[in-house]
Automatic annotation (TrEMBL):
NCBIfam families: Glp_gephyrin. Coiled coil: none annotated. Pfam families: MoCF_biosynth (PF00994), MoeA_C (PF03454), MoeA_N (PF03453). Residues 172-309 form the MoaB/Mog domain. One of its GO terms (molecular function) is metal ion binding. Belongs to the MoeA family. InterPro entries: MoaB/Mog-like_dom_sf, MoaB/Mog_dom, MoeA-like, MoeA_C_domain_IV, MoeA_C_domain_IV_sf, MoeA_linker/N, MoeA_linker/N_sf. Catalyzes the insertion of molybdate into adenylated molybdopterin with the concomitant release of AMP. Pathway: Cofactor biosynthesis; molybdopterin biosynthesis. One of its GO terms (cellular component) is cytosol. Keywords: Magnesium, Metal-binding, Molybdenum, Molybdenum cofactor biosynthesis, Transferase. Transmembrane segments: none annotated. This is Molybdopterin molybdenumtransferase.
């Protein structure tokens, strides 16, 4: 058995980042930007009013009354110059006219015809956004990075209509087992519903992949081969179950017979011990254990970082943070334990009392995986421990 860290290093070594494509900005949500974007202009492109009011020069004409000589609205600049004793009615987002050095908000002004009178003794704030305060022409958005909603607006503001992004990884998910039927089917008394693929598909899609659930492979070589053949064009093949040492655990032998390379089998983690990784033709092959929580924990720890690496985001484990243990923990065994846990007020974390890897209900109550490292001793409530958000 190798450590989780070693296993992840092996997985990353099996990955070459995917190619790129150009997509319209409206289609770029969640994609990974692979080439830097250069701003085509300053933002704002002119000194802009930050409030509705009157533009005037407080420095050169510090009087209390001004004559209104025109108007500037967003998209409609005032063409002239503001002179001594003059003001321009201005609206948020409009270019500040030449000669003005501040915008007095309309709440601080009384107006009578074309004359305004300031009601405050002094101009407290300029309310002007100088040209280029957000970014200047030539500024770059670095790559790689995930395009979140805010980055999409940033690219748009830079007048970038298309983005150079990573191709979406194609993920084929294969559940294996004679006991499985799909949700909505009519299970026999000795059958259960295949659930894990739905979690893994959602997880892969949240990482920017295109994921498909293939037909369930039965516990015989011909069936597993036939379904694996359907995944021939995938970038990543994720099998679920059939990974252990039982007579019906065929994923290892069958993929081996089909020419798969194997980087490792069995990881010192709990749950998820019988995890396997390799390559099958053009695809990264992840063989996940069948227990629902085991497969989902492996998805978080291995599939998600692998999908990020494929999209060019680099080789990094899932982010972990620290929290204060809410109760005592007994010493851990030789496998790192990813305990289903709940974050509480004041930065505490409480592991669930039942850590059986078959319990989806417990996983759904959890918002974190508390990491109890392999071989770590007993821990006391109040100690700091690391966790991963799930
Ligand atoms: N003698 C040993 N037995 C087992 C070992 C071991 O080291 N020695 N390891 C145990 C561990 S740890 C795990 S995890 C499981 C993993 O086994 P498999 O990957 O072969 O998984 P299966 O036997 O196919 O299934 C386990 C369990 O999960 C259910 N399952 C499978 N696929 C799905 C699915 N798509 N959706 C929902 N549930 C699924 C399956 O019915 C079983 O109940 O092996 C231990 N055994
Ligand atoms: O490691 Mo198994 O994955 O404990 O349930």
């Amino acid at each position: 058995m190798i450590s989780v860290e070693e296993a992840l290093t092996h997985v990353f070594a099996l990955i070459t980042p995917l190619g790129t494509e150009q997509v319209a900005l409206a289609q770029a949500s969640g994609r990974v930007l692979r080439a830097p974007v250069t701003a085509q202009r300053d933002q704002p492109p002119f000194a802009a009013a930050a409030m509705d009011g009157y533009a005037l020069s407080a420095a050169t004409s510090p009087q209390t009354s001004y004559r209104v000589i025109g108007e500037a609205a967003a998209g409609h600049a005032f063409a002239g110059r503001v002179g001594t004793g003059e003001a321009v009615r201005i609206f948020t987002g409009a270019p500040v006219p030449e000669g003005a050095d501040c915008v007095v908000i309309q709440e601080d002004v009384t107006r009578d015809g074309d004359t305004i009178t300031l009601t405050e003794d002094r101009v407290a704030a300029r309310h002007i956004r100088p040209q280029g305060t957000d970014f200047s022409a030539g500024d770059q958005i670095s790559a790689p990075r995930r395009l979140r909603p805010s980055e999409l607006a940033w690219l748009a503001a830079m007048n970038c209509a298309n983005a150079h992004v990573s191709r979406r990884p194609d993920v084929a998910i294969i559940a294996t087992g004679d006991e499985l039927v799909m949700p909505g089917e009519d299970p026999k008394p000795d059958q259960i519903i295949a659930s894990n693929a739905f979690a893994l598909k959602a997880m892969a899609e949240a990482e920017g992949a295109r994921a498909r659930i293939l037909p369930i492979a039965r516990d015989n070589e011909a069936s597993l081969r036939a379904v694996l053949d359907l995944a021939a064009d995938a970038d990543m093949i994720v099998t679920i179950g059939g990974a252990s040492v039982g007579d019906h655990d065929l994923v290892g032998p069958v993929t081996h017979a089909m020419g798969a390379s194997r980087a490792f089998y069995k990881v010192a983690m709990r749950p998820g011990k019988p995890l396997m990784a390799g390559r099958l033709e053009g695809a990264l092959l992840l063989g996940l254990p069948g227990n629902p929580v085991s497969s989902i924990v492996c998805g978080h720890l291995f599939m998600r970082p692998a999908l990020r690496a494929m999209q060019g985001l680099g080789a990094y484990p899932m982010h972990s943070a620290t929290a204060t243990l809410a109760c005592d923990l007994p010493a851990n065994g030789p496998r790192t334990h990813y305990m289903r846990a709940t974050l509480g007020p004041g930065g505490t974390i409480a592991p669930h009392p039942d850590q059986d890897s078959a319990l989806l209900g417990v996983l759904c109550q959890a918002d974190a995986l508390l990491i109890h490292p392999a071989g770590d001793g007993a821990r006391k409530a109040g100690e700091q421990m690391r966790y991963i958000l799930v």
